[in-house]
């Protein structure tokens, strides 16, 4: 019989290795799933994990990893700060949308300007938009003690409606024959976030890398980072140490909102190209998975974001080449999170084999 | 599967790069916005794909990717199909428009066909169906069948395509029943069974006893069946599992003939960029079997209307028609133009009598 015994201290080795084990277990379970669907499991796994990186057309897929991964990483870095301090921003998707709307709106107001200040102005507007959307749950929590999980999540649906409203109204392309959606910003030289589209480089990729570095410094070298970690790991001690919870809540929700807003702005002015009803593709929610998959650690998040991007890109290739159903790929991605969380148990508990009755 | 067999296939899979497709096969790719099992829009495009397979057998290879979001993911999926050697790619949702144009620029030798859009290029054709012709027939039946004089309409997005449908259905319902009223709910989705069911229930509660839908799932049919006395129409596919009641007829998208013809053109080297907008006459829009729940005389009238639309003898938008604000749109006997100011392609206004506003 199996018994769980709490470890005196979480195992550091396991904490680092469980994400890898989870990936391997997912490959095995996913392989069984693909085999049950009548596909060659080895070919499927190879198509998902190997082909985008080293296959015949890797020259195209590798840059796509950056494009797909960058918004995930940027958002997840912001979320991880709050998550570490026990502040749960579940509404990054809404902040992402509002950031895109504010940034794109700020730019489109000056169409067809070719000023060099245009793009920086859009970046600031995008960040402010996301920040403001994140501050709503923060202020409500601070003032009235509302639950930030519920408020931030509900605001996603408000943002969704605003997005539809803007795509059909204020931001609608006046030359678009009445169809919804804004002008194409990616084609507009002075407003696009693309640096080199063929290499997958846009300002969002750069911002994600910078965010990883800054978050690392913040968490390891700065008193604020120490306070964040302390509040999450030992709330009572944090209070004795004089950490101001109000300021922490405002900082964490504001920062994660601003980063999500930036991700939205870079996406809408680059890879996505236009504000449209279907603009939000779930990055804000997927980033939650990325944050946990990366153990809330900046470098971990960087790797986790790229891994998630890989399963999306490889998943699409597998769908088209092997004609796997989309649902099978989604189950596969779900397994990854499931196994990760399940294996988390091993970090804090030890599995003991005991003979029945002997205990 | 035996372990040895698995390992052998693993060796094959890892050792050898996938052998190049036989060069004489024409490869056709399809990008779908919903799941192939949606029972509506994507289902019918997939039927079209199957028609291509059936027509050409070994000479074609078809691939598809379903549930592709309209954005950078679509661009990647198209690029990947082109890299994998597709000769012809059908992108089957309006929201793939800019992505199709972008990818087409990078692969000048690959032919693209974009559904329901308006941007053409050297290697990009556009195609759509005159669904509003089918709406005219639905409107006629709906106007005759309603007892509460309230017709519910589940709309997806306020784009010209959908607005044309509402106008056409309203005009023809009003023609046979001057007291008829339309209640319109915007679902802001093409496919979301839960939302569609909610919309249907809300409309039924407001007294609608006929429901028209411009969304793709069968959820409104199920809601109507549960209500017991509400008439529905199949959308995009026949939805025949709800016949003879509540589903009394349907608009069927029939992409098969077009897909077969375009694939043939690629094989023969005669493919050229075109803009196709076909209706009942060309067979791109089908009217599903009108069930016996509809009185025989109404059925006969509806079929006559269908045939008149098919032969071109009657146009679904024939004046006199005023716009909602009372200004004149079409003079008596005048028919609507496809393009230009106030043309059908960019229709963004309701006709006179509709008591609703287009959201913007």
TrEMBL record, chain A:
Keywords: Cell membrane, Membrane, Transmembrane, Transmembrane helix. One of its GO terms (molecular function) is transmembrane transporter activity. It comes from the Bacteria. The chain crosses the membrane at residues 12-37, 65-83, 95-111, 117-140, 149-171, 200-219, 248-269, 275-293, 300-318, 324-346. It is a multi-pass membrane protein. It is found in: Cell membrane. Its main location: membrane. One of its GO terms (cellular component) is plasma membrane. InterPro entries: ABC_transp_permease. This is Beta-methylgalactoside transporter inner membrane component. It comes from Shimia thalassica.
From TrEMBL, chain B:
Keywords: Signal. Residues 25-301 form the ABC transporter substrate-binding protein PnrA-like domain. Residues 1-22 form the signal peptide. GO terms for cellular component: plasma membrane. This is Purine-binding protein.
């Amino acid at each position: 019989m199996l018994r769980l015994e709490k470890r005196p201290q979480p195992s550091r080795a396991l904490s680092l290795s469980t994400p890898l084990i989870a990936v391997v277990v997912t490959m095995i379970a996913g392989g069984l799933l693909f085999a049950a669907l009548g596909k060659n499991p080895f070919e499927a796994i190879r198509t998902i994990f190997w082909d985008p990186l080293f296959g015949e057309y890797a020259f195209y897929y590798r840059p796509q990893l950056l494009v797909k991964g960058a918004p995930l990483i940027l958002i997840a870095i912001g979320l991880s700060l709050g998550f570490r301090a026990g502040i749960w921003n579940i509404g990054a998707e809404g902040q992402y949308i509002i950031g895109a709307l504010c940034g794109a709106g700020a730019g489109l107001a000056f169409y067809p300007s070719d000023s060099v200040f245009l793009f920086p102005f859009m970046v600031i507007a995008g960040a402010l938009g996301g920040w403001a959307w994140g501050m709503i749950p923060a202020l409500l929590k601070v003032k009235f003690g509302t639950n930030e999980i519920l408020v931030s999540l509900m605001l996603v649906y408000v943002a969704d409606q605003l997005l539809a409203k803007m795509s059909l109204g204020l931001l609608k392309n006046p030359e678009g024959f009445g169809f919804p959606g804004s002008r194409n910003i990616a084609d507009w030289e002075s407003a696009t976030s693309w640096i080199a589209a063929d290499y997958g480089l846009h300002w969002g990729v750069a911002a994600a890398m910078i965010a990883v570095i800054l978050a690392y410094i913040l968490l390891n070298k700065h008193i604020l980072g120490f306070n964040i970690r302390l509040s999450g790991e030992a709330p009572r001690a944090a209070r004795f140490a004089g950490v101001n919870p109000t300021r922490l809540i405002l900082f964490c929700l504001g920062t994660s909102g601003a980063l999500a807003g930036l991700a939205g702005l870079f996406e809408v002015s680059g890879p996505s190209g236009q504000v449209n009803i279907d603009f939000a593709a779930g990055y804000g929610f997927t980033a939650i998975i990325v944050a946990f998959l990366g153990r809330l650690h900046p470098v971990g998040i960087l790797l986790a974001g790229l891994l998630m991007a890989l399963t999306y890109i490889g998943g699409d290739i597998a769908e088209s080449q092997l004609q796997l159903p989309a649902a099978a790929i989604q189950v596969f991605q779900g397994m990854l999170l499931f196994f990760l969380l399940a294996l988390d148990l091993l970090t804090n508990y030890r599995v003991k084999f005991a003979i029945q009755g002997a205990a | 599967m035996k372990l040895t067999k698995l390992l052998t296939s693993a060796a094959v899979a890892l050792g050898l790069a996938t052998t190049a497709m036989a060069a004489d096969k024409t490869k056709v790719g399809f990008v779908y916005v919903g799941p192939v099992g949606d029972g509506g829009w994507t289902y019918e495009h997939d039927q079209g794909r199957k028609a291509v397979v059936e027509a050409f057998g070994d000479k074609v290879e078809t691939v598809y990717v379903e549930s592709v979001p309209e954005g950078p993911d679509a661009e990647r999926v198209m690029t990947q199909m082109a890299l994998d050697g597709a000769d012809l790619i059908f992108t089957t949702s309006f929201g793939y428009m800019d992505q199709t144009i972008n990818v087409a620029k990078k692969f000048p030798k690959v032919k693209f066909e974009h559904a329901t859009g308006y941007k053409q290029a050297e290697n990009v054709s556009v195609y759509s169906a005159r669904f509003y012709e089918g709406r005219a027939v639905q409107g006629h039946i709906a106007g005759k069948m309603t007892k509460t004089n309230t017709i519910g309409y589940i709309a997806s997005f306020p784009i010209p395509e959908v607005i044309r449908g509402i106008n056409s259905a309203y005009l023809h319902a009003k023609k046979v029943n001057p007291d008829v009223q339309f209640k319109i709910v915007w679902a802001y989705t093409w496919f979301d069974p839960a939302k569609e069911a909610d919309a249907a229930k809300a409309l039924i509660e407001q007294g609608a006893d006929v429901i028209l839908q411009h969304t793709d799932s069968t959820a409104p049919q199920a809601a109507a069946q549960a209500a017991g006395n509400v008439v529905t129409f199949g959308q995009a596919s026949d939805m025949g599992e709800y016949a003879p009641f509540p589903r009394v007829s349907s608009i069927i998208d029939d992409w098969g003939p077009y897909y077969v013809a375009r694939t043939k053109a690629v094989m023969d080297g005669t493919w050229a960029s075109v803009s196709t907008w076909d209706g009942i006459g060309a067979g791109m829009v089908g009217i599903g079997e009108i069930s016996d729940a509809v009185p025989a005389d109404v059925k006969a009238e509806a079929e006559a209307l269908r045939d008149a639309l098919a032969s071109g003898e009657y146009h679904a938008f024939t004046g006199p028609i005023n716009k909602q604000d009372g200004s004149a749109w079409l003079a008596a006997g005048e028919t609507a133009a496809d393009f230009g100011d106030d043309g059908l392609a960019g229709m963004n206004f309701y006709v006179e009598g509709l008591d609703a506003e287009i959201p913007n």
